Amino acid sequence: MADALDHYITWRLYRTELDIELDFADAQLDEPSLTANAPRLEAALDALHRIEGGAVANVDEGRMVGHYWLRDPERAPDPAITRAIHDSWRQIEAFAAGVRDGQILAEDGKPFTGAILVGIGGSALGPQLLEAALTARDSGPGFSLRVLDNTDPAGIADLLAETGTLAQTLILVVSKSGSTVETRNGMLELRAACVRQALEFPKRAIAITLEGSALDQLAQREGWLARFPMWDWVGGRTSVLSPVGLLPAALLGHDWRALLRGAAAMDQWGRVRPARRNPAALLAWLWHQQGSGHGLRDMVILPYKDRLSLLSRYLQQLVMESLGKRLDRQGREVWQGLAVYGNKGSTDQHAYVQQLRDGLHNFFAVFVRVLRDLDGQVTGPGMVEVEPQVSSGDCLDGFYQGTRAALAERGRASATIVLRQVDAAAVGALIALFERAVGIYAELIDVNAYHQPGVEAGKQAAKGVLTLQAAVLAALTAGPGGKTARELAEALGADPVAVWQVLRHLATNGRVSVDSLVDPAAAQFARAP
Ligand SMILES: O=P(O)(O)OC[C@H]1O[C@H](O)[C@H](O)[C@@H](O)[C@@H]1O
């Protein structure tokens, strides 16, 4: 009779060189369905193999999908790509060393002590994840990274207030396309702050972007301090191991080569056949089985380690932007996706775990367990005993094991990724594991994981709002009296609700005059005096 230990060993994948385990013992996977679906999984792995060999997997945009080459440049199908990656590494190494050793100085001759990264989506989430996961561990004192990832004036003001003088601050403007509005705005706001502080923006500005993009051209024209490449074969949400994530990591003093090594080692593991022995394939199969191939259950990401609390935010983009698709690759309407949320344990146990155990059964959990309580040291001697013979770390691990068991008891599935510690190699491996699982799952459900047609609709509509705002401002007359939103909308042939929405925002910010904003039909707007 197989006992619980046999069951665990049967559903455990372990890789010695990574010291990472994937524990599927509570994942409710079963051998018969895995055997029956082995051909599909093997075909998905074949497809990934072709992608790694340079297939144009992003058919709509006619692009190769090369994030796997970022950690193993020799795999790239074109020697020019291999060279470009190696060149970028050399450039990152030299620049970060120059900043950290004080050869690259600010205009006042003093060292740079921090950076503000301006970017959004894939151009911010990866660097944020790395900073949160690795900073305390690797960097030592002396360099800080702040991120400006929105066009919210209050957020920008807060960041500027926190930073104070920008004299010792590098400004990293990160945008693959080089034309993202939020990032442009953040850059313009920081440029204005430099002018206010009598500092030269180009002397501290660095661009990470596609060669020839609008941002790249601007950086060239103005002679920015440095320019680093992005490539069209790397998607924003898989760009963390390109200069997008590596340069900030290097500036922070992280072991970015270990990050690459960890990812490359996970890629190796992720190429293992048969699929039953392959961690990424089993993870993708878990998603498929739990959500019936239609994302019917959400993935709750629960790392029991504060430093990984941004993992779920990072994975939200990677998974949901890749898999959330209306059409499959045959053009059929499929409305696919896989919702991701989570923060960290045991914190979330005091928030929504109640529903996970007792409520709606529309999820499965992926735990991340970190065996070592404190990095690089054993805590035994001198540990604080919160109870006799019990440390805080014992409690944290107990909460993980307890929550997992409590969910299993109610028939809720989970998988656990077990790391020895949160170091650069482990973080690289985690990133690669999920990237590969996304690639495999996309093959299983037949969607293009590498485009994002859905994000355009909101951007276009926002442009329309600003066009309407310009028309409304032009149509307003100077007071007294004024016009209602309805009158203005009629004059402009526009939607009166849209006109009201624009006006109430402008009025609240003192850009137009209004008698009162209480009644949308009666409010009288006039040009601000
Ligand atoms: O790096 P950027 O070109 O500025 O793009 C930033 C982000 O915005 C877009 O809307 C995409 O949906 C994301 O995939 C991308 O990461």
Automatic annotation (TrEMBL):
Pathway: Carbohydrate degradation; glycolysis; D-glyceraldehyde 3-phosphate and glycerone phosphate from D-glucose: step 2/4; Carbohydrate biosynthesis; gluconeogenesis. It holds the Pfam family PGI. It is an enzyme of class 5 (isomerase). Signal peptide: none annotated. CDD domains: SIS_PGI_1, SIS_PGI_2. Its EC number is 5.3.1.9. InterPro entries: G6P_Isomerase, Phosphoglucose_isomerase_CS, SIS_dom_sf, SIS_PGI_1, SIS_PGI_2, WH_DNA-bd_sf. It catalyses: alpha-D-glucose 6-phosphate = beta-D-fructose 6-phosphate. The active site is at 321 (proton donor), 350, 459. Keywords: Cytoplasm, Gluconeogenesis, Glycolysis, Isomerase. GO terms for molecular function: carbohydrate derivative binding; glucose-6-phosphate isomerase activity; monosaccharide binding. PROSITE patterns: P_GLUCOSE_ISOMERASE_2, P_GLUCOSE_ISOMERASE_3. Catalyzes the reversible isomerization of glucose-6-phosphate to fructose-6-phosphate. NCBIfam families: PRK14096.1. This is Glucose-6-phosphate isomerase. It comes from Nannocystis exedens. The gene is pgi.
